[in-house]
Amino acid sequence: MAAGLLTTSLAGSASGPGTARDSPRPAASLVAHQEDPFAVQRARMVREHIQARGIRDPVTLRAMRAVPRHEFVPPEMKDRAYGDHPLPIGHGQTISQPYIVAYMTDVLAPRPGMKVLEVGTGSAYQAAVLAEAGVEVLSIEIVGALASSARARLERLGYERVRVRHADGFFGWPEEAPFDAIIVTAAAGFIPPPLVEQLKPGGRMVIPVGSVYGTQTLILVEETREGDIRTRSLLPVRFVPLVREIR
Amino acid sequence: MGESTPGCTSRHLGPVVFLLSAALLSFEVILVRLFAIETFSHLTYMAVGLALLGFAASGTILVLFRDAVAGVERRLLDTLVVLSPLVLLAAPVLAQTPRYDPTQLLWDRGQWIALALVYGSLSLPFLVGGGAIVLALRLCGDRLGRIYAWNMAGAGVGTLLSMPVLALLRPDGALAATALPASLAAALVLLAGRRSRVGWIATGGILAIAVLATWSPPRRLSIIDFKALPQVEMYPDARRVREAWDATGWVVAVRAPALRHAPGLSLGFRGELPTQTALFVDGESAGAVSAGSGGGAGAGFLAWLPSSAAYAVGRPEAVLVLGSAGGTEVLNALAHGAGAVTAVELVGPLMKLATELADLEGGADSDPRVRLLRGDARSFTARTGDRFDRVILPPAGVFNATAAGVLSSGQDFLNTVEGYRSYLEILSPGGVLSITRWLRTPPRDNVKVILTAAEALAAMGVTDLGRRLVFVRSWATGTLLVKPDGFTEEEVAGIRRFAGERYFDVDWPPAEGPAEVFNAIDRPAFEEAARAVTRGREAMTTFTQAFWFDVTAPTDDRPYFGRFLPLRAIPSVLRDGPGQWLPVAEWGTLAVVATLIQSGALAVILMGLPVLARLRPRASGRLPMGRIAAYFFAIGLGYLFVEIAAIQRLGLVLGHPVYATAATLGALLVFSGVGSALSDRIEPARVGHVCVVVAAVGVVLAVLASGTGSLMALPLPVRAGTALGLVTVAGLLMGAPFPLGLRRLALAEDGVAWAWAANGVASVMAAALATLISMELGIQALLGCGAACYAAAAWVARRGRGAADQD
Question: What is the ipTM of this complex?
Fold first, then answer.
């Protein structure tokens, strides 16, 4: 996930093809569980850093347990993949803290059959978690090298429900719109108007604001059935009691 | 008391120390700038602060190896001087070698080893140069004051020179250029006495290397890729179109089709954004220049920015924008029909590039209605005779980013009670001050803005404060509008219409009936803050004390707007793992605390090693080592406390937080040098009296500090003269206790090195301590602490006299 930029660009696509969808691969969770030396660490991560902080949605928890996070970090960092913190993935991007990924997934309430747009693919970990939750994910990444590596990784792990584009995310993915949910992981100083337009009535958009290494909050944008826009500033629940203790 | 050894006979020794000190201080100042660009400012603070421990380490090493050094001091000194230019060039390169990633420090223990290697590499120039200086002091016993004077004067000149060097050269070239004065020092040593062919060749070689390195720096500017500039440069078809720099900042302009800047844009906006060129100061985002003037096709988005709330109460004639950055707010004022827009920008190169780009693309800054002024906003508002219908403080100004690079602190004189008052006082009748800031969850910044504005209004004698404030909130920003004359009902209704059409909320004044909420937050903190303001001082105090974060209104004495976690909260925040507290982390404060802890631990090691080795300084008779250390530690702390407080206050008074800081610091060091030279005429037995006088001056300065704000409106010669007078007195007096103390307490052999180590350790710890004291208690209290340190030194010196006299 990109560190917060005030000067924004939500990159997106142009090169279109190269989706991971077409590759005939086994299901991701199937691959993940075969000879997985990290299964215990992953279970602990979900138990201690996610469940214990109030994430209860079984779909989200199942997805977090299934996705092999160590496959989404640089090889030399695999032993730290299940720690409660972000890790660098190159090109100034990070794979988010697992709790934040789980929290954002929980907020979006993914269910099978939903179509989700992600702006800022990064390592594709968030996309893989959403795919495990049974949704179709269309993900846009502005950094070409990241888009390529994410595509290859998803293909290797068998995430067929994720398509990755190398493009400017500002414009969204109009030919696939509208979306049930949009997740903008390239934190921005503004929300591109085309993305708001591509959200279904009743749909949800979640945007982390700030830096992954510092203050970070989440903005939930909802479009009402009447077409009006509402937002809610979300504080990850575990932090509330912490903040109350500060003074 | 000792005398000069034969090694002190060279008449070049003073100039050698001068050149070396100039090189080391300019290295430090420029390294701070370089690191502020390459990485994050709080890490810069830690890395450079700890590297300075190299000075102290040189003293400790000379104590530990005193037998090996005995008799070869002069040869060792010459060797260290000759090595200095090479070490100044090599150290920054070595510091780049470890696989150091500051973002992983909290989770990867290996990163602490890499960080230690960075510290170690960067401390080398201070170790080598400091060793040479302490040897010179040791060699010249009876002329010690003069040698120390060369040292202080060199440090002062080095600080002053680093400003023009940073204006002439990019920071990587400027850092390499510090080898030039060091190579001149090496030349003096190599060519002293009999000038051999080898000496000439070596001199030529070292000078050639220094010149070549300045031309083509061995360490190139390399920005951590988590900063905004390298990220934007990764966008497709991104290209760097302009670059400019001086001591205030390194500014880069980048164009990329995917780049857009519209801070807090309404979710209701459906139009197009104009072509923009992004600007970056020290690698961080600093706005964008939009093509086309106020009426251009792409300017439609301006009416949908939260900051446009300032124009919902009517068309202004004269607008002042404080911190113009790329000119978005200037453009906004023009788009809303302003007849004249004045923009004040501190960072010279930012203004230069914004103007050039505007001329090229027809942007706002090229409009004849716009007047661009380079300088400090507080100075401008203190002295201008003009009146404005709107004063605009845009979000995310660049002041902090640049000032932090130079000062390594988070001071923000733009957002203080006195600052807001000065903006309100230049409003024309019916005028409005508009302050927009990014929202954070839980809310804190904008709550502090409301309380600070209320304090400013109260200080002006305004009552019924609730009627003077309107708070508008978007999904991402909060805008406080302040009108000393009070908003009319029609104006509030106009603002509500403006907000409703854009999915913005008006938190204050609250709606009379049930109101639709567009952007929900857990707690109505802004309304609560404004309500507390309307109920008076007691309610404000109760609200502030009960609030999650420290939202006390910052003042010029405690100008830390960005500080929300009180120090006492840090243990409870750190109790859980970093994954828990990241969202409330305040890295600046944590870095200062970390620096203090690390420097404290290293101080124990550096001061403890000679004790463990049972090495009692020779020629200090029966004087306990602890007492020597206590004296020099106390004056080290005292000097830095007074120095930091002085540059904080006088920087504001003189009007430019970067150049004025350099001038104040440089002058203080030079006058300390003069004081040191004059100290040779003072009987060493009077050291305690001198310390008492310095302490008394510190107390007087602490009292005077409260009145310095009133100096801001005076003409520059008066302000400069006053500042120079204060610096002269303080510098002359503070330069004496170190050489006097050496002569009285610890002169000769390794007593000098021991004192040097104690003083060096104190200087590093003092920088961190001073920031914490200033944050918690204020700048006046910091001056008071400086005075207390000198009083303590006087007490130690008096007690030490008895022991020394018995010898």
Answer: 0.82
